[in-house]
Write a structure and sequence with these properties.
By secondary structure, the protein is an alpha/beta fold. The protein has a single domain (6-31, 50-211), classed as Aldolase class I (TIM Barrel, Alpha-Beta Barrel). Helix content is 39%, strand content 16%. The chain contains 10 helices and 8 strands. An 8-stranded parallel β-barrel has the order 1-2-3-4-5-6-7-8, surrounded by 7 helices. The protein is globular. The mean pLDDT is 97. Its EC number is 5.1.3.9.
């Protein structure tokens, strides 16, 4: 197993991303967020976009998982071979891509994409939405599989927290493949649950690096004015 993947074992990966139009959507800001996460004990950083990847890679020592989102429906997380290669060229130690069985914009199959990336020496992480996606990813020789897209592709219901059922199934079926849990881990207790189920590592994003959402959680917990 590659030493970069070994570095992530048993650890927390922090996703440092800001949505379009948000005040924090700036490479320097995301790099500062990543540095703060590393100081806090993160074993890895996941980030989006070539500028952010380059900025973050220049500031942290932990592995960087890079993605490039283009569009907002269908296959849009690192959707083509070109996107994936650009992420690697920007400095990503690991490139994550949509590993669903949906058509890809460049008409390559997922398996063809992984093979080309491996020929380039690139470590690949599969963002899966179902167990069938994970099987395809493993058959393709993917280095890491994850639950990232569970609840977002129509194959599985969107759970309130992490999709523990899918995580458990992936861990049990693929004991020799690192399985990362990503998606809706909002509390330390939930993080503990996914690690107890055998996750290689876990990605936490919104609950750590998205103050707009976190503020909304606290706002929604306030009693209504009429109740005061």
């Amino acid at each position: 197993m590659h030493h970069i993947i070994e570095q992530l074992k048993g650890g927390l990966i922090v996703s440092c991303q800001a949505y379009p139009g948000e005040p924090m959507r700036h490479p320097e800001t995301m790099a500062q967020m990543a540095m703060a996460a590393e100081i806090g004990g993160a074993r890895g950083i996941r980030c989006q976009g070539l500028a952010d990847i380059a900025a973050i890679k220049g500031q942290v020592k932990v592995p960087v998982i890079g993605i490039w989102k283009e569009g907002d429906e269908g296959v849009y997380i690192t959707p083509t071979l070109r996107h994936a290669r650009c992420c690697a060229n920007a400095g990503a130690d690991i490139v994550a891509l949509d590993a669903t069985r949906r058509p890809r914009p460049d008409d390559r199959t997922y398996t063809e994409t992984v093979a080309a990336l491996h020929d380039d020496g690139i470590i690949v992480m599969a963002d899966c939405g179902s167990l069938a996606d994970a099987r395809q990813a493993v058959d393709a020789g993917t280095d890491i599989i994850s639950t990232t897209l569970a609840g977002y592709t129509g194959e599985r219901a969107k759970t309130d927290g992490p999709d523990l059922e899918l995580l458990s199934a992936m861990v049990q079926e693929f004991p020799d493949v690192p399985v990362i849990c990503e998606g809706r881990i909002h509390t330390p207790a939930q993080l503990g649950e996914v690690m107890e189920l055998g996750a290689w590592a876990a990605v936490v994003g919104t609950a750590i690096t998205h103050p707009t959402s976190i503020t909304g959680w606290f706002r929604d917990a306030l009693p209504s004015p009429d109740a005061q």
